[in-house]
């Protein structure tokens, strides 16, 4: 992406939250909080952390992926039973991405993002979780949110998103209904104050 010499310096939002403004009320980003896993000048990628895939059970997913057999699926460790499956975004919804605490690392495939949060997108981590040797905190997202070069910056300028420091406690919080309001509270905003036609000062 080219910039004129007098334009503002480019800023990465990697490791931060994007919080959807009310004008994104329809579609996959309505009231969404996105954890930004990567943001470079050629594009960005994030995971929606507060939209649960209610219809998908983690244990059944492990069976479908041949990570465990039918018999093993009913004897999973408690940590695997607690795993939540998210609708991570509208792109590549058949792929899984695990956001997790930094106490698990797969040498070739784990990407540290920041604040003790990592991303792993291989079956190895699902096998480790099924054995009870995975990370202490994790969520599995199906799909992701992606932006091409300059697209995210344009959406932020058009009041599509608020940017907030990330809090890993929200990434792994099971209370999905509260995550949006709690993310706004990180920057001192109440959802009731937001207007879909808010302008820039």
Give a brief description.
This protein is an alpha+beta fold and 201 residues long. The chain is built from seven helices and nine strands; from the N terminus they run βββαααββββαβαβαα.
**Low-confidence region ranges:** 1-6, 197-201
Average pLDDT, rounded to a whole number, is 89
Question: What is the CATH topology?
Answer: VC0467-like
Please give the largest β-sheet: 9 strands, mixed
Oligomer: single chain
Helix and strand element order = EEEHHHEEEEHEHEHH
Question: How would you describe this protein?
Answer:
The chain has a single domain (16-193), classed as VC0467-like (3-Layer(aba) Sandwich), CATH 3.40.1740.10. Mean pLDDT is 89; it is low at 1-6 and 197-201. By secondary structure, it is α+β, with helices and mostly antiparallel strands. A hairpin with a 2-residue loop joins strand 2 and strand 3. The protein has helices at 58-64, 70-73, 78-81, 123-131, 151-157, 168-171, 176-185, and strands spanning 16-20, 33-40, 43-48, 85-87, 91-101, 110-114, 117-120, 138-148, 161-165. It starts with 15 loop residues before the first strand and ends in a 16-residue tail after the last helix. Strands 1, 2, 3, 4, 5, 6, 7, 8 and 9 form a nine-stranded mixed beta sheet that branches. Helix content is 22%, strand content 29%.
Helix and strand arrangement:
Layout: E1 16-20, E2 33-40, E3 43-48, H1 58-64, H2 70-73, H3 78-81, E4 85-87, E5 91-101, E6 110-114, E7 117-120, H4 123-131, E8 138-148, H5 151-157, E9 161-165, H6 168-171, H7 176-185
